[in-house]
Amino acid sequence: MVRDFSVAVLGAGAMGRGIAQVFILANYEVKLFDAGPGVAEKTKQEISKQLHRLVEKNSIEEGVAKGALNRLVVVSSLDAIADVGLVIEAVIEDVEVKRVLFASLEAIVKQDCVLASNTSSLSISTLAAQCRFPERVAGFHFFNPVPLMRLVEVINGLRTSESTVELLERIGTEIGKVVVRVKDTPGFLVNQIGRAYTLEAINLIAEGVCSYADIDRVMKDTAGFRMGPFELLDLVGLDVNHPATEAIYSQFYNEPRYRPSSLMEGRLRAGLLGRKTQAGFYKYEDGKPVVEIEELLNTEAANMTPIWVSEDEAAESKVVIEYLKEKNILIETSENPSLTALCIITPLGEDASRCAARQGLDPTRTVAIDTLLGLDKRRTLMKTCVTTDAYLGIARAIFSIDKVPVTVIKDSPGFISQRILAMIINLGTSLAQARTASPEDIDKAVKLALAYPKGPLEFGNSLGIKRMGKIIENIYQQHLDPRYRPNLWLARRIALGISLHDGN
Predict the structure, then answer these.
(1) Residue 302 has what pLDDT?
(2) Rounded Cα–Cα distance for residues 247 and 288 (Å)
(3) Burial degree of 103 (CB within 10 A; 0-12, 13-18, 19+)
(4) Which tens digits make up the pLDDT trace of 131-151?
(5) Is 254 a catalytic residue?
(6) Which of 121, 156, 191, 317 is the catalytic position?
(7) Percent of the chain scored above 70 by pLDDT?
(8) How far apart are CA 101 and CA 171, in angstroms?
(9) How far apart are CA 54 and CA 162, in angstroms?
(10) Known catalytic residue: 501?
(11) Local confidence band at 3 (pLDDT 50, 70, 90 cut-offs)
């Protein structure tokens, strides 16, 4: 059944092509326009090929493909879209180009025609500022590749009407997308949240804590992410990611949470963009990253030194003690360690050196272990700034007896997973506090668009909000950088003992 109004898609690049395809498959008549000679016609041919592939895969029937293609009309001038009920622009990401386009469209389309922008970061309120009817202008942000990505963000500008937003929400559902409503803010929802994963990873590198591969392995193995942050950056490309980070940072008037990294700027200038240049954070051969193989450890020394486990963090130390008992490792049960014992600590958001000093432990024989996500799939050890190689080697041997991989990092306020997840949770709750979107939509959007195993608030709830709050507070106190300041949404719910999804 053909819909009751037609749609115009302006811009026939990758995004415009995808948008047009999902609309014609949802029984909308689509008029496709591009200012480049022959571009729209070529795009129609590419859509035809895509539909044919779907038929070959038995995803759609041949009659459906033919009917969809018949609903796609290439037009050579904007005057030809005068009768449409919805315009979606997917032209170059330039604020002036889009503003001029929207203002010119008002002289062509009907007064009740909705004007939507597929911009990923430009202010909808700004794009609508020169329009006579700004209430009909909204954001309709799809993700690439459009036919595969299930999420669409509907963004209401300061003067967008409720009826416009509701119409786009209904249309988004009709074309098979999951719709989240987002307030008009720099980077909207998904592009803001995505900064936490990659920026905290690069901050770990800037502090000399570990390697790119260390971070990627930990976040995939322990936290369940499909790609590590540096694999992701190489896939997206620094020429895409870094300018987007700079834009969000500047639009938020240098909000520290979005502060770009000089390391990314340097690599961008050096042309180390990622997969597209065959060199980024990794080098690539035959399209695959070249990663060093992890070292196999000798575990013979595991039972040769007495082990003492600090119970400063009782719940965390319990995980370690249970592991050691299961592996028949003898544990000292005295209040203080003997003079030769390996001292194991389980800090939350603290660095190993200051944690050892606070507890009066010998830092040369102290090693920290991350218990945030358990010890089943990978273990991360942190040495103090003076831990000896001998004691570190014993710790590595003990925690790799069962062949579970072990990652060793240098001293850091919080381990790899603690720091990155703390930033994701803190940024997610800050968006909830700002009412950028509802808590449920924040989680939903992140899982669908970024493929995170959990949304930011879900991560906080599952790991324990008091526990995560302590990690965030300790990281902040050790760095004294406002980037790490605890968020009010999180702090209030910790105080009340309620879920991060509760309240408003």
Answers:
(1) 58
(2) 31
(3) middle
(4) 999 999 999 999 999 999 999
(5) no
(6) 191
(7) 98
(8) 23
(9) 37
(10) no
(11) confident
| pLDDT for 301 beyond 60 | no
Burial of 360 (0-12, 13-18, 19+ CB in 10 A): exposed
Together in a domain, 281 and 322: no
Cβ atoms of residues 493 and 500 within 8 Å: yes
- Per-residue pLDDT of 6-21, as tens digits, reads 999 999 999 999 999 9
Q: What is the mean pLDDT of residues 38-61?
A: 97
Count of Cβ atoms closer than 10 Å to residue 477 Cβ: 14
Structural domain contains residue 458: yes
Q: What is the DSSP letter of 340?
A: T
Catalytic, 120? Answer yes
Q: Which is catalytic among the residues 6, 120, 203, 461?
A: 120
Task: Looking at the structure, tell me whether residues 471 and 394 fall in a common domain.
Answer: no
pLDDT at residue 293, as a whole number: 81
Task: Say how far apart CA 408 and CA 301 lie, in whole Å.
Answer: 17
Contacts of 199 (CB under 8 A, 6+ apart): 245, 258, 259, 260, 261, 423
| Domain shared by 236 and 93, yes or no | no
User: Cα separation of 375 and 266, whole Å?
Assistant: 36
Token digits of residue 378: 């990978």
CB 365 within 8 A of CB 387: yes
Question: Could you give the CA distance from residue 349 to residue 416 in angstroms, rounded to a whole number?
Answer: 10
In the predicted model, what is the mean pLDDT of residues 40-66?
A: 97
Q: What is the DSSP letter of 461?
A: H
Three-state secondary structure string covering 405-459: CEEEECCCCCCHHHHHHHHHHHHHHHHHHCCCCCHHHHHHHHHHHHCCCCCHHHH
pLDDT given for residue 463 in this prediction: 98
Angstrom distance (rounded) from CA 131 to CA 117: 13
Q: Which residue range is the domain that position 85 belongs to?
A: 7-183
Query: pLDDT tens digit string along 282-298?
Result: 999 988 899 888 776 55
Residue of 6, 117, 118, 141 with catalytic role: 141
**From the candidates 153, 231, 313, 316, which is the catalytic residue?**
153
Cα 259 from Cα 200, distance rounded (Å): 10
Q: What is the pLDDT of residue 303?
A: 59
Judge if 176 and 316 occupy the same domain: no
74-102 per-position pLDDT tens digit: 999 999 999 999 999 999 999 999 999 99
Say if residues 153 and 445 touch (Cβ distance below 8 Å): yes
Indicate if 162 and 210 belong to the same structural domain.
no
Spatial neighbors of 389 by CB under 8 A, at least 6 apart, are none
